[in-house]
């Protein structure tokens, strides 16, 4: 049986990466992580990749704060293609992808975002929802396009905002929902790939 070959990009601690790797290990997800890449040399996601014995790499982001240097993004495409990646998964990757990646993997790059898109794009979406007095927020898995959190929505999970919630308590609960939703969505891609 063929398994879906994943490349995971992340900038932080890698909790979604761990959830995906655990789902694969536990037999809940017919996929294989071929490569984990971070734009942050000290990112926890690289430690998680090493813990699971997954090939991993640091990719120097260059001088821009919110995107990669064009030649760096071309190198990213090369690395993912060499690893035979079929689906690119953004798990807390804090850079906007541009043409090299979008052209190389059309509708094959997915992201998870901590709000019910289209509401509250960008950073700290849980704080934006809290500040707006929302009663519910959540997380969204979406295709990546040239905008910031503007790609077509694939799936969402709601998380209630409770009385007395802080930014931290709300973010923690959203992350729990993310760690459930992301592997479920990837499993759907894997099922389609196996057909």
Let me know the largest β-sheet: 7 strands, mixed
Number of helix segments? Answer: 6
Number of strands: 7
How large, in whole angstroms, is the Cα Rg? Answer: 16 Å
SSE blueprint and pairings:
Blueprint: E1 4-10, H1 15-25, E2 31-38, H2 44-51, E3 56-58, H3 70-82, E4 87-90, H4 99-104, E5 109-113, H5 125-131, E6 136-143, E7 153-160, H6 167-194
In short:
The chain is an alpha/beta fold and 195 residues long.
What are its keywords?
single chain; 195 residues; alpha/beta; 37% helix
What this model shows, in words?
The protein is of the alpha/beta class. The protein is 37% helix and 22% strand. The chain has a seven-stranded mixed β-sheet. Helix 1 links the parallel strand 1 (4-10) and strand 2. It is globular.
């Amino acid at each position: 049986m063929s398994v879906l070959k994943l490349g995971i990009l992340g900038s932080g601690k890698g909790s979604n990466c761990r959830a995906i790797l655990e789902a694969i290990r536990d037999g809940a997800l017919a996929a294989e992580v071929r490569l984990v890449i971070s734009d942050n040399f000290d990112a926890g996601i690289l430690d998680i990749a090493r813990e699971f014995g997954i090939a991993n790499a640091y990719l120097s982001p260059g001088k821009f704060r919110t995107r990669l240097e064009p030649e760096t993004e071309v190198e990213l495409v090369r690395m993912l293609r060499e690893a035979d990646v079929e689906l690119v998964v953004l798990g807390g990757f804090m850079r906007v992808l541009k043409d090299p990646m979008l052209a190389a993997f059309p509708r094959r790059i997915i992201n998870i975002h901590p709000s019910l898109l289209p509401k509250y794009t960008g950073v700290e979406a849980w704080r934006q929802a809290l500040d707006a007095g929302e009663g519910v927020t959540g997380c969204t898995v979406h295709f990546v396009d040239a905008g910031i959190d503007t790609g077509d929505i694939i799936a969402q999970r709601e998380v209630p905002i409770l009385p007395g919630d802080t930014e931290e308590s709300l973010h923690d609960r959203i992350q729990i929902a993310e760690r459930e939703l992301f592997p479920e969505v990837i499993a759907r891609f894997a099922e389609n790939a196996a057909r």
